[in-house]
Design brief:
By secondary structure, the protein is an alpha/beta fold. The chain has one domain: Uracil-DNA glycosylase-like domain (Uracil-DNA Glycosylase, subunit E, 3-Layer(aba) Sandwich). It contains 8 helices and 6 strands, in the order H-E-E-H-H-E-H-E-H-H-E-E-H-H. It has a 6-stranded mixed beta sheet with strand order 1-3-2-4-6-5, sandwiched between helices. A hairpin with a 2-residue loop joins strand 5 and strand 6.
Length: 204
């Protein structure tokens, strides 16, 4: 389910995971193999929010573990993030059939759990990975190509929209843009002294 053993987690996290596992707020629960909640640190200043689980995620119970996840991991590792520096989750925690985009109703049904997760993690910087995460998190209908790489400041949080790694896999010429956006996130975290400076800094 996570990169933590259940009983090693604080009680509030155990209760949260139990709520996720028992959730039947939308029809997606009927076909899931596993609820996909998170990977990374349980207290992280940086939260990455994707769209929803795919086949590999549904099988393993972890977000971003397929080809998209490998690409994201390469970028995070290349920019010297450790697994405890970030917390990865999705707009919905159950796989939509055929890996389709989650519906607005499904996103709304899962929002209570995402809000609870947000309150537990307490991030300062949020990366919205792809158009679906951007739309459902912000309520904006602007295309991701228009907003990616531009900071949104809201209620003391710093939000960075970017392309989803699955899109990068189909358009490898855009890979540097994902790295650019992650580097901006890294610099923001360093600015707030929420993460140690890189040993091998990369200039924008």
């Amino acid at each position: 389910m996570t990169n933590y053993q259940f009983y090693d987690l604080p009680l509030e996290w155990q209760g949260f995971l139990q709520a996720c596992n028992s959730c039947s707020n939308c029809e997606l629960y009927k076909e899931r193999k596993q609820v996909v909640v998170f990977r990374g640190g349980i207290k992280a200043s940086f939260m990455i929010i994707g769209e929803g689980p795919g086949r590999h995620e549904d099988e393993q119970g972890l977000p971003f573990v397929g080809r998209s996840g490998n690409l994201l991991n390469d970028a995070l590792t290349g920019l010297e993030f450790t697994e405890e520096d970030y917390h990865i989750c999705n707009i919905v925690k159950c796989r939509p059939p055929g890996n389709r985009t989650p519906t607005e109703e499904e996103a709304v049904a899962c929002r209570r759990l995402l809000n609870a997760q947000f309150a537990l993690v307490k991030p300062k910087v949020i990366m919205l990975s792809g158009a679906t995460a951007f739309r459902y998190f912000t309520g904006s209908t602007d295309p991701i190509s228009k907003v990616r790489g531009i900071w949104i400041e809201s209620k003391g949080y710093y939000i960075m929209p970017t392309f989803h790694p699955a899109y990068i896999l189909r358009n490898m010429s855009k890979r540097d843009l994902l790295w650019h956006d992650l580097l901006m996130v890294r610099k923001k975290l360093e600015e707030f002294k929420l993460i140690a400076p890189m040993e091998n800094p990369i200039l924008l």
